[in-house]
Write a structure and sequence with these properties.
single chain, 4 helices, mainly alpha
């Protein structure tokens, strides 16, 4: 992104700072989600276990991750010059389109269970 937008030194430093903060925050979310998923899937053998509470917590954390991503992009957009904003918007739209695409179907290597 730094290269595509041709950030100057100050913009690059700000980008790196924001990016580092964002990665740390996302890692914290991912770690917490993993803990809840571990609890969830380790409870498969329990007869009287409801997954609703844990599933709701995972969903709430995923929603918070999306908010964090939006806030990160908003902050990045603020460091862009007027000329860079349209390029930034285009890059984000392309990235979101890629994210929304489904991966190609893989051939099964193992018979279904």
């Amino acid at each position: 992104m730094v290269k595509e937008l041709q950030f100057n030194q100050n913009q690059t430093e700000r980008f790196r700072f924001l990016s580092h903060q964002h990665r740390e925050t996302m890692k914290e979310f991912d770690d917490e989600i993993k803990q809840f998923k571990d609890i969830l899937f380790n409870s498969l053998s329990k007869v009287h276990f409801s997954s609703d509470s844990i599933s709701n917590k995972i969903g709430a954390l995923e929603a918070e991750k999306e908010k964090e991503l939006f806030a990160f992009f908003r902050e990045l957009r603020k460091i862009c010059s007027a000329e860079q904003v349209s390029i930034f918007d285009s890059l984000i739209k392309k990235a979101l389109l890629k994210k929304g695409r489904k991966p190609p179907r893989e051939r099964r290597r193992h018979p279904p269970i």
